[in-house]
Amino acid sequence: MSSNLDALYRRVIMDHYKNPRNRGVLEDGNHTINMNNPTCGDRIQLTLKVEDGIVVDAKQEGEGCSISMSSASMMTQAIKGKKIEQALKLSKIFSDMMQGKDYDEEDVDLGDIEALQGVCKFPARIKCATLAWKAMEKSLKEKEQE
Amino acid sequence: MNIHDIRSQFPILHQEVNGKPLVYLDSSATSQKPIQVIETIEKYYREYNSNVHRGVHTLGTRATDAYEGAREKVRKFINAKSTQEVIFTRGTTTSINTVAASYAAANLKEGDEIVITYMEHHSNIIPWQQVARRTGAQLKYIPLQEDGTISLDDVRATITANTKIVSVMQVSNVLGVINPVKEIAQIAHEHGAVMVVDGAQSAPHMKIDVQDLDCDFLAFSGHKMCGPTGIGVLYGKKQLLENMEPVEFGGEMIDFVELYESTWKELPWKFEGGTPIIAGAIGLGAAIDFLTEVGLDNIAEHEHKLAAYALEKMATVEGMTIYGPLDPAKRAGLVTFNLADVHPHDVATVLDAEGIAVRAGHHCAQPLMRWLKASATARASFYLYNTEEDIDKLVEGLVKTKEYFSDVF
Q: Residue ranges of the domains in chain B?
């Protein structure tokens, strides 16, 4: 199998796929958003608990491929405890990463997310990876406007 | 049918994808184009590109002759009585929408019923949902058998005296089943309903005779049958089309235009508003010539063998789920499947790395996906240029996919 494939399906990605973090629905969440990718049928439900401008808790549920589900898992892990603007900054970094652009990783800990870098070599799969992030971004931006 | 001769006429097949020879197994989404079709379209643009049905210059006459010549080829291809019954559209979706927006909107009222099946493509569901919403008619679904086939008993139980339209796909783009549309048309007619056949997945692969089927409308697309994208056909019985209003108004489709009123051209042009899809129609004509020369019966037999071979070989892969009937006699040339816990997107990505193109997703049939209890599936679909070797490579690729992901599962 090609090295590109190995870069796509990194072990850490498969680990998040098989053992998703923050799976489920937040009972005391104050924001719920559903998003789907109509071209392929992937869907995610994201519940967030935001207090004083901080994402206190986050859970995700849905169905989809290894890339979309692991990305959702990593995303919730990454934004928990972060200020809204930090979470949105992560989202921007992730978007740049998916487009193969240089991204600004100063002051942020990307953690597992960096494992998804290989996705940018598979244009057809970028939408899988960005679904959860788009949901988070939309949800937090709505929150900001409240 | 000499498969090597056929393959040599499809330039696109002779390339490497991701360093491997291309194995194209996505013809149900769109077919590849033979050199004859590509050259016919190129010749039109190089030598006689011109608008049709207007002006008297030589190029205009050549273009008109070629465009109307293509209509005659389509007529013969589906054995319509007259070219007046052959309308060029943008594709199957536009064809079905035309029936819905013109015939159905004018003839349906509250209490009437539209009958479709659970296996329909979105393009044969949503137009009817819209008609139902606007007219107050009720949309009803013929259920499926365990193996994904339709039973005529269920057809009889669903169609009633209130049914005005029955619309069914002849071949399922997911299950691969061939539906008994001739028998369904008969039942529809016994109840005074009109029969619409979605031929998107059948016209490319088997001989269709609209007089034998006795369908009232037939919709299909050029791009799935070796023709270009952006051209399709709506066949309708003349007496029905004559009583239908156009959906699009403008140039090309008019007879007299007064300040406040206008009259329409005769059939089929009253349904072809605006400059028609000239290159597309001429390209479709070339595709029909090509398919006719190979022979639709030969193509159907070839694909049938491939489907039987694929069903047998794919079943040997551990963790394989195949959707639809396992009896090859009930099937056309496609196999929809899932591989154990590996999501179909991941299957398709790993196969793509091996140069193998398959489709993954919901195949524009979300209600059917729910019936199958699958959020997504993968699909390998075959056409006249595919070989048993292609299927061997697919099976090898599936085994590799399974191994590749086995570490994590």
A: 3-26+296-406, 50-292
User: Which CATH number applies to B3-26+296-406: 3.20.20.140, 3.40.140.10, 3.90.1150.10, 3.30.750.24?
Assistant: 3.90.1150.10
Query: Percent of chain A, pLDDT > 90?
Result: 70
pLDDT for A27: 94
Using a CB-CB distance cutoff of 8 angstroms, which residues of chain B are in contact with residue A2? 18-19, 353
Residue B289 has pLDDT above 70, yes or no: yes
| A142 vs B184: CA distance, rounded Å | 51
In this structure, the number of other CB atoms found within 10 A of the CB of residue B147 comes to: 13
Instruction: List, as one string, the DSSP characters of B348-405.
Output: HHHHHHTTEE-EEE-TT-HHHHHHHT-S-EEEEE--TT--HHHHHHHHHHHHHHHHHH
Architecture per CATH, domain B50-292, reads as 3-Layer(aba) Sandwich (3.40)
Return the closest-CA partner of residue B35 out of B289, B231, B390, B301.
Answer: B289
Residue B366 contacts A where some CB pair is shorter than 8 Å: yes
Tell me which CATH code domain A3-145 carries. 3.90.1010.10
Is-catalytic flag, B215?
no
